[in-house]
Amino acid sequence: MRIGLIAEFNPLHTGHKYLISEAKKIIAENGVGELVCVMSEFFTQRGEVAIIDGYSRAREAIYSGCDLVIALPYRVSVAFSDDFAHKSIEILVNCKITHLIFGTEEDIEKFEYMYNLENSSETTIKIKEYLKLGYSYPKIMSKIFEINSVNSNFILAYSYYKAIKKLAPNIKLIPVKRRGQNLNQTNLDDSEFLSATSIRKNYANELIKNYISENMYNNIFNKANMNEEKFYNLLKYKILSLGKENLKNIYDVTEGLENRIYQAALISNNYDELVALISTKRYTNKRIKRILSYVLTNSSRNEMLEDIKDLRILAVNKNKTYLIKEINKLEKVKLHQKLNKNNEKYFKHDIRVARIYNIFYNENDIFKYNIEIVE
């Protein structure tokens, strides 16, 4: 048995630990197995800056029960939901997982209903009509499936379901009901589990010590506590220096969006205002945040669509290091334990992203850390 987990752990909190513990219970019942995680590093799926570096979060994941943590390339980490799910699961399939565990607000039966409905010819026509009217994907989902509220976690869970159906229907799904705060809640309350958003917004409040480990708390508090606003001036400079013509070369900048981005940069005073000025009915805040991260990192269409063969390991349980050799022997992907002159050519895009992140993180060179072997 080999269970796969797709994560950001931004930061890793008690809700994540609950999900990991559920996976470990299933492995224990089976008698043998591993928990393999793929995790975003410097930017997240919603286009936001990770609060702390990937190595620190990966180490915490191993302490919490994961056996191997593989870095998702930037081009996966900051992709729209279906693409993020497809590429993440493709990596896990190539690592020979037998199960996929994920949190969800809905039962599998709901996803099965949605999948069948979405793939009907009648629904395909409706989706095209809504796209012409300028509706965003979440809004289209709420209309097609008659769902009042569609959050990003719900969309991702459904995207995982669709990707498994397409790539590896033999893989068994382990849905775990979410508990505690809703995804986007920012207030501190007495919930069983706080949202990662709430923890990030209130990182200086000692109450969050009840929801994250002491190591994670100290790392967040003593390091840079990264956020999008820190990059605002750099991002604004990048937009203005590229100009409208060169903005067109950035991934997902289409249909004259370069004009909105440029004009917004001229009059905005902070990051949130910049996002709000660019967003439209079709271009949600989350999509704009992703696009702005592409601008910041100068990510072209070719870079974002590159095939994924080579991957970096962030951390591994010292008793499960055999996984590295075992996965590499399959020759579906190549796991690298350390960056060097022989393999850095495979990671040019991620090196650039890491060093942009490090402008404000102030480590020596966070991309050249060694693999964490955790006891």
TrEMBL record:
Zinc-finger listed as a keyword: no
Transmembrane region(s): none
Principal localisation: cytoplasm
UniProt subcellular location: Cytoplasm
Catalytic activity: cytidine(34) in elongator tRNA(Met) + acetate + ATP = N(4)-acetylcytidine(34) in elongator tRNA(Met) + AMP + diphosphate
Keywords tagged on the record: ATP-binding, Cytoplasm, Ligase, Nucleotide-binding, RNA-binding, tRNA processing, tRNA-binding
Binding-site positions, ATP: 6-19, 103, 153, 178
Top enzyme category: ligase
Matching InterPro entries: Rossmann-like_a/b/a_fold, tRNA(Met)_cyd_acetate_ligase
EC number: 6.3.4.-
Superkingdom: Bacteria
Presence of keyword Ligase: yes
Family designation: Belongs to the TmcAL family.
Record's function text: Catalyzes the formation of N(4)-acetylcytidine (ac(4)C) at the wobble position of elongator tRNA(Met), using acetate and ATP as substrates. First activates an acetate ion to form acetyladenylate (Ac-AMP) and then transfers the acetyl group to tRNA to form ac(4)C34.
Stated name of the protein: tRNA(Met) cytidine acetate ligase
Organism: Gemelliphila palaticanis
Phylogenetic lineage: Bacteria, Bacillati, Bacillota, Bacilli, Bacillales
Gene name of this polypeptide: tmcAL
